[in-house]
Design a protein that fits this description.
Blueprint: E1 22-28, E2 31-38, E3 43-47, H1 60-66, E4 70-74, H2 91-104, E5 110-115, H3 117-128, E6 133-139, H4 144-153, H5 155-160, H6 162-166, H7 172-192, H8 203-213, H9 218-231, H10 236-244, E7 253-258, H11 266-269, E8 280-285, H12 292-295, H13 297-309
Parallel strand pairs: 3-4, 3-5, 5-6, 6-7, 7-8
Antiparallel strand pairs: 1-2, 2-4
Helix pairs in contact: 2-3, 7-8
């Protein structure tokens, strides 16, 4: 189902925001996906998390293009300018969305850069379709098996991820997300950010994310992946997915994390390297929270570009 984007007060699209990038739609895995892209070279596909959309990568797109990459930020299924479908929000299918977009862009492979939920899906895509993933960069999200273990056995992590448990209620979470022009979205981003002077949590940026969440059906579709992640824990499909994710990641992996992330504790994210049978680098950003790519975009992008350009990333 395609939901038209509602316009802002000045008539501008809340999703196709002007900038040095270009906007277009691509078809993949039975749906239509909005992308913002710029630059030429090896493909770097950027995957956003909750409660955001492609615009969270606005700092990285021009930097990657200048560094010689084709930088593409996509809206995940159900979010931003992409299709809102009635089903298909399990991680295996969402990962096929991502690898399908790589193919639709005419590329043989891509470096995947994922934050939060986008990171969870990047891990998944690297396991499911390793030939399409050249390198893997994950921010603020452990490997799916590590996430599952932490949420079930670590009370501190279970409490830090309380929003995920709250999403299991019917209807109420969606209503809370869009109430008062999505005031909760702005509050979550502020609460989850660290104390560093941050471009991602100023009033103007928060207004952009709030407008995007108010597009019809976005709140529901944003929550559906988290509902699957919890409700499937004891179901055959969830058990099968968890077993499938035992397969090692065999592509070079950069794992980035903010030391003050209140949503995903450092001890939960650390240790994901046990699932990687390839060069693995762990980088902890001191004093940053859940959104290091927005809280300190220069430090994040420098780390990202240097690693992507390194012909032999170390362990």
């Amino acid at each position: 189902m395609t939901v038209p984007e509602t316009s802002g007060a000045n008539g501008a699209s809340p999703i196709r925001i002007d900038g040095p990038w270009t906007h277009r739609d691509v078809a993949a895995n039975g749906a239509r996906f909005h992308i913002a892209e710029m630059g030429d070279g090896p493909l770097v596909l950027l995957l956003h998390g909750f409660p955001q959309f492609w615009w969270t990568w606005r700092h990285q797109l021009p930097a990657l293009a200048e560094a010689g990459f084709r930088a593409v930020a996509m809206d995940l299924r159900g979010v931003g300018g992409s299709d809102r479908t009635p089903r298909g929000y399990d991680p295996a299918n969402l990962a096929l969305d991502i690898t399908g977009v790589i193919r639709s862009l005419g590329e043989p492979d891509a470096a995947l850069v994922g934050h939060d939920l986008g990171g969870y899906l990047a891990w998944t895509a690297a396991v499911m379709r390793p030939k399409l993933v050249r390198r893997l960069v994950v921010s603020s999200m452990p490997h799916p098996r590590r996430w599952r273990s932490a949420m079930l056995s670590d009370f501190g992590q279970s409490r830090a991820g309380s929003h995920v448990w709250g999403f299991q209620r019917p209807w109420l979470p969606e209503r809370q997300l869009v109430a008062d022009e999505a005031e909760l979205v702005g509050r979550l981003i502020q609460d989850w950010s660290g104390p560093h002077p941050r471009s991602g949590a100023d009033d103007e940026a928060l207004a952009v994310y709030r407008r995007a969440m108010c597009i019809p059906s976005t709140a529901h579709c944003s929550i559906e992946p988290y509902r699957w992640m919890v409700r499937s824990l004891a179901r055959p499909d969830g058990i099968q997915f968890n077993r499938r994710m035992k397969r090692p990641v065999r592509v070079p992996t950069l794992h980035l994390h903010g030391s003050l992330d209140p949503v995903m504790r450092t001890r939960s994210a650390a240790g994901s390297g046990q699932y990687v049978e390839a060069p693995y680098r762990w980088r902890l950003f001191d004093g940053l929270g859940h959104f290091p790519h927005e809280e300190d975009p220069v430090a994040f992008t420098t780390e990202l570009v240097n690693w992507l350009k390194d012909p032999e990333p170390d362990r």
